[in-house]
Design brief:
alpha/beta; 6-stranded parallel sheet; 3-stranded parallel sheet; 9 strands; 40% helix; 13% strand
Amino acid sequence: MKVADMHCDTISEIFYRKNDGKDCGLIKNELHMDLEKMQKADYLVQNFAMFVSIKDQKDPLGYCLQLIDLFYQELECNKDKIALALNYNDIMNNKAMGKMSALLTIEEGGVTKCNLAHLRNFYRLGVRMLTLTWNYENGIGYPNFKLMEGEVPDFKAPNTETGLTDFGLEFISEMERLGMIIDVSHLSDAGFYQVLHNTTKPFVASHSNARVACNHVRNLSDDMIRKLAERGGVMGMNFCPSFLEDVENEKDAIGTIKSIVDNIKHIVSVGGYECIGLGSDFDGIPPHKELPDASYMPLLAEALSDAGFKTNEIEAIFYKNVLRVYKDVLK
């Protein structure tokens, strides 16, 4: 079964380890994701997110550019196995040449410093999807919870009051004009609906699950799932155990394949199987006990089959739904 995964933080993790003097690369490593693991699981395309915590970097823009440089260095070193994809046709062409595809994305719109010129330059550098916010207010919009020093966030109370700023509305308009996919994972509930009402093309929640299945603000409500599906968008299953399992203490969530299947079942019951894809969040989440790395993806396909999903539905969830959005939005 081919795999299209909308989100991993592997490049950021490799960068961190290299700066710490550790030998770590994309071909083979001890992380959740490397090319050998991807080949074993028959990956078609992986979105590599340049994750930047704007509160931890003095120069978020410069840091993001360093991550992009590392991304391209890794592609050059492994060009016999993986190649850049800017659109659907690139993915198909890479596949015909026996190569996996890498889609370049950014997790944290704040790296653009509220300047549309930086957004356009990121597009010129190959960025084709951008997560509007992470966990901090960033000039574009507001997240669904605040990380305040010395305070524990309330993960069950979504932000329904503050969404996109005036600049944020300009930002998503320019993303649509460019042909860049808008990603609402991490964005507040209020921001989700502003994206919905101020855009026309499909958008995604690249790594978010179902709030009814697991009551966490990082997940989507049933109404949001329904509206995303009506737009033709896709949400990617996040393998973070605490986004999959309702537990009092996040540390008690260990990660089971059943919890992923249960989330998918609920999402399909609300929005249909056409609105769900994969967004593992590998290398940005704690270990998932039963899907510890990318090479284990066939186990999820097998579990979906055992749960009664038809082959065409599993193919849609694993890669065809994501490819449809890429075909519709990317230029």
